[in-house]
Amino acid sequence: MKVLVLNAGSSSIKYQIFNMEDSLVLTSGLLEQIGEVSSRLKYKWLDADGEQQEAVQEGHVADHNEGLKLILDLTLKLGVIKDLSELSGIGHRVVHGGEAFWKPTLINDKVVDAIREMIALAPLHNPANLMGIEVSRALCPGVPQVAVFDTAFHQTMPPVAYHYAIPYSYYKDLKVRRYGFHGTSHRYVAKQCAQHLRKPLSECNLITIHIGNGGSMTAIKGGRSVDTSMGMTPLEGLVMGTRSGDIDPAIAFYLARAMNKPFDEIENILNKHSGLKGICGVNDMREIERLAAGGNLNAKLAIDMFCYRIKKYIGAYYAVLGAVDAVIFTGGIGENGVDERAQICAGLEGLGISMDNEKNAARSREMREISTEGSRVKIMVIPTNEELEIAQQTVESIRSA
Ligand code: ADP
Questions:
Q1: Which residues of the chain have pLDDT under 50?
Q2: Domains of the chain
Q3: pLDDT value at position 363?
Q4: Is 284 in the pocket of ligand 1 (CB under 6 A)?
Q5: Ligand 1 centroid vs 317 CA: distance in angstroms?
Q6: For ligand 1, is residue 337 a contact (CB within 6 Å)?
Q7: Exposed e or buried b for every residue in 117-147, given b needs 16+ CB within 10 A?
């Protein structure tokens, strides 16, 4: 059984084809700069001997339709599939599912319309996701397609966690509430952790920390998301690469007045020029570590603020959950940032969260425990795999439909 996973951005298409029996990635690639003079497709595939090959192709790709056609033709040419009918399903990553979608959903015209209606909530992402769905339905009409939403896992949050304390009518009329994102990743690592703990997910209380360029944390009670740090948009919560995370909302009004700038510009500053980058000029954590090691005080401050915010959320989510089985690190920084993990967990022994420094420092690409033997709460590093989770959810959805 082969499943194609598509993640369409405004000028890019990221894809993978899985063989579902063994979760093997048969081919994967990233097409960038769609619509520009020269687009670039970087792709990998397994050849007939099972060896991984990779190549780059450049040339003009006018739009997403041409882009997906190029990818499908290439996949056929490489022999990954012999015919499009070999695809059992196509899973699409969709950022915002609003309140309408609490689980992966088989796509039909009505679903497409509902995703279109959500554009106001996610103007930066949903239009591109929708474009991906439309071209793929046109090019692969016989293949069942499933939308997998970043927000869906968090639809189990209770009202006390998802409401903002602003006039209630804004929730009713304008859908202003917390939705949360990165749900596919939080769900994937939670499932992996449950397997590792040999417990049903429905009996696990977890704090999942997904920290890459974007970042979010989730409190998971009995396997369900009960709170998460991102809000109505991905701007809320942790200090991120370029996003501020939690700030006093009045700062936006103050800045708009003080600098005489329109709100669009303030929104751009908070999303693209804040967070780690805002504090020290750089958003890549490895680069920030190098700067901090060289004595750059703002780089050190940026790392300290990043870790401190996460530590605060661990405390908050511990209180929400009451008892915690494991704290899970994932995402580029969560999986690789030895010093950040140590700094975040330092001083949490009183909460039963005790890190084994040697285990934390050991490099690995595998799921692993990095807490001490006696730690009441396990600390785990679990590499995320959002594409595989989308592929699995696609299969589940098609089967249950
Ligand atoms: P995205 O959110 O774009 O998917 P990733 O999950 O790939 O991002 O994470 C990117 C972040 O991970 C960058 O800030 C990068 O510096 C950081 N990172 C990668 N490797 C390391 C490392 N060894 N130590 C610290 N940070 C790392």
A1: none
A2: 2-149 (3.30.420.40), 199-386 (3.30.420.40)
A3: 93
A4: yes
A5: 24
A6: yes
A7: ebeebbeebbebbbbbbbbbbeebeebbbbb
